[in-house]
Design brief:
single chain; 378 residues; alpha+beta; Beta-lactamase; six-stranded mixed sheet; globular; disordered N terminus
Amino acid sequence: MDNQYPFSISEEERARRRAQRIAARRQRQRERRRRLLLRAVPAAALLCVAVGLLAFSTGGHAEDAGSGKAIRPVQVRHETGNTAQAAAVSLMTKAAPAISYAAVATEDTAQVGEELASQYAVVVDLGEGTILAQKNADAVISPASMTKILTVLVAAEEVANHGSLDDTVVIDFDITNYCYLNECSVAGFLKDEAVTVRDLFYGAILPSGADACLGLAKYVAGSQEDFVVLMNEKVEELGLSGTAHFANCIGLYDDANTCTVYDMAMILKAALDNELCRQVLTTKVYEIPASEAHPEGMVLSNWFLRKIEDHVPEGLEVLGAKTGFVDESGSCAASYAQLSGGGEYICVTGNAFSSWRCIKDHVQLYTTYLPGLEPVLE
């Protein structure tokens, strides 16, 4: 196989490639910080002017016209050098959450109660950048196989820079043995089978294949351990490292493999912004042609998407999804939906008592909190 990825590369070559990736990522981070700073300085200047005008016009105090209560004067320190730059960047982060992938709760955000079986939930309006509804959305949970959304996002970005979807990866003994010992769900690739990187992406999401995820990890980083480093770097880049951290690329339960449903909603949002990930996440059925390993070919399907389409009302279409399950988090899922009249939304839930209940909870949340739909309670 001319395009086969060489797993037997030397330690020196592996170190060289890792150093290249780290250098490229650091350069991107420096450029991102520079752009943030350039955008933040005008916002900081406007804030200072506004505060100055307020203090000048009120003598240091302002009255709330509706309540008659005095508003405390804002004290502004004139900073110079690095302190001013840090303040500007901090202001920019708060003023424009879209840059760091964030959604904000408003006074209209609904607090979901026990009427929803899932113990954790969040519904996000992508167009407005707001949280429509939430239930324990900031609680840290085990994301189970929803982890694979981050896996394909990191792999897609790395492949775009350093690889090709037409390259092939051999599913070696280490991969099949790891899946067997950990009782992982698999796409069904066989030991010593050469699989294209493209097929690995679909195998990771549609049937939730751990074999495909491990193949991507080895192709991109040489090992799962090195790939997890890239995953956590991505989490930090998205501004989620305060509550999200990953210990494997599959979603196996681990005290260090955690996030909130809100974190997962933002990870899905970032994945949808990646063309390859969006295509994979929104595919219901993917066919792999016949090969020596699979004479009749392979058909991979997204069970959640195929099942939920029979339960959503007219005007709502659930286009993408990834499910998950471990004992510690119950059945969970992250999904992406559109309204026929416009509008894009993400829903993430955790700890439903069954996979069917998880699907019904997504239908319940979408129909209850999206505009123009009648609630469906099952």
